[in-house]
Amino acid sequence: MLRLGEVPTLVVSSRDAAREVMRAHDAAFASRPLSATVRVLTSGGRGIIFAPYGGSWRQLRKIAVTELLTARRVASFRAIREEEVGAMLRAVAAAAAAGRAVELRAALSALVADTTVRAVMGDRCKDRDVFLHKLQRTIELSAGFNPADLWPSSRLAGRLGGAVREAEECHDTVFGILDGIIQEHMERTTSSSCGAGAGDGDGEDLLDVLLRIQKEGRLEFPLDMLAIKQVIFDIFGAGSETSATTLEWVMAELIRNPKAMHKATAEVRRAFAADGVVSESALGKLHYLHLVIRETFRLHTPLPLLLPRECREPCRVLGYDVPRGTQVLVNVWAIGRDERYWPGGSPEEFRPERFDDGEAAAAVDFRGADFELLPFGAGRRMCPGLAFGLANVELALASLLFHFDWEAPDVADPAEFDMTEGFGITARRKANLLLRPTLRVPVLAQGYVDYRNKEKVMEPSCACIPLGSSQLKWYRRLANVSSTLARPNAMPGHILRPAPNGGKLQVAFPLDPQEHVEQVVVVVVAGG
Ligand code: HEM
């Protein structure tokens, strides 16, 4: 038990205590404390992540689990993930061709942010960089070590450091961006509602789902626009940072451990040699890569203290009384490095083989049942985005290893590679991740998967052309009457998708993979 400023805080640092808190007394510890900065950042505890335990949180959590983050929904975003990973690979290939190192942290953050934003809103966000910057500050501010959070009863502390003021500024900027995006999204939906695809429940992005649920009503707690914005912000906050942090640490550990890098790379290249590209549907055949991810979660759990819980009723944990209102931090970072649970060599050592068949930890998994490995937490407040997060991590990692060899410039001894952690509610690497890629397997100009026909069509290249609302309206009418627009074996210049996804039309055109294309002009002629 610690007292952080005025805040009584129980730190849970063993597997048994974690099991008590998140299984035996899960209901008692299912709330979250609302510090002064978090209160501002979450519009007073709205949304899911920091909402106090109660009916409103239960309702939003149910929507998340049964509608937004289901396995089926995650699978429906596969094309987005493959397109975004493809775009990142092409940028890395360009750097490799120029002999340049890549700032991989920035590339991975942008990848996960773009993938998430498209899953949420169907389109990229033009203010992505401002958004990411504010998100990063939000994460630092919500760590809870500001005077205003440590001395909640002190007015002076509230003014010191300016954290609350900065939280207000972050909140206003982010919600301003969200307002614009939602407005655009609603205009797009209205203008396309006369044609095919609209309102049929197919290809919904997460904002569509939330707006549909809002419209349907029948909710105990009305889903107002503020709640919708907060949920969207939650998904960005919880989804982007954690997945990008995991990817960053996996790559850093593989650089530090050349043998593991070699083994993981060889496995991925063997598995996808015939296809020339990593596809999500076949990731299940990778064994070692999954051990590498599990080992990274053990040593570099993105949320080292999970997210804070709060004790709702007086409770006894391992014989100790825990008063109501106590903040609880589960030190997953320490549990993941405790030699009592990780025998067989130093627990600090990165050794994915510890999870291999026949090893002591082989059966230990991270899905909330084994309390020595809890990157996603456990119990009622466990992460509902596990499948979403893993999908982002696995495809990107396998693709980076499949196409490129990696080295750290100016680091003579890989064991010396800097692994210092930064400060915040997430534990990122402190330093940038500057790595030099060497192209080993060519990167396709662009891949395209035809899901209607359940077959894979690799075109020389495709362009995604954003359509204005009047073009989109005409296009939808056209698509309704002319099924010839949908061509599974499209020739260059042909329209690939019968119903534009998120106001975009996909068009195939010939492209030399080495060629750099500045602009593609597509003329959509209404009426055929
Ligand atoms: C590698 C990726 C991820 C990791 C390691 C991770 C980890 C976590 C952890 C540790 C918690 C707190 C659990 C607890 O208190 O016991 C959490 C909560 C949460 N995560 Fe994730 N997460 C990841 C990805 C995602 C994604 C992609 C989404 C959504 C798209 C998401 C949505 C959430 C939400 C909404 C909560 C709050 C749950 C609640 O309080 O009821 N997470 N996550």
UniProtKB/TrEMBL annotation:
Main location: membrane
SUPFAM superfamilies: Cytochrome P450 (SSF48264)
The keyword Metal-binding is annotated on this UniProt entry: yes
Mode of membrane association: Single-pass membrane protein
Classification via InterPro entries: CYP450_71D, Cyt_P450, Cyt_P450_CS, Cyt_P450_E_grp-I, Cyt_P450_sf
A GO cellular component entry from the record: membrane
Cofactor(s) recorded in Swiss-Prot or TrEMBL: heme
UniProt signal peptide: none
Pfam families noted in UniProt: p450 (PF00067)
GO molecular function: heme binding; iron ion binding; monooxygenase activity; oxidoreductase activity, acting on paired donors, with incorporation or reduction of molecular oxygen
Keywords of this entry: Heme, Iron, Membrane, Metal-binding, Monooxygenase, Oxidoreductase, Transmembrane, Transmembrane helix
Heme is among the record's keywords: yes
Protein's cellular compartments: Membrane
Residues given in the record as heme binding sites: 383
Family of this protein: Belongs to the cytochrome P450 family.
Full protein name: Cytochrome P450
Organism phylogeny: Eukaryota, Viridiplantae, Streptophyta, Embryophyta, Tracheophyta
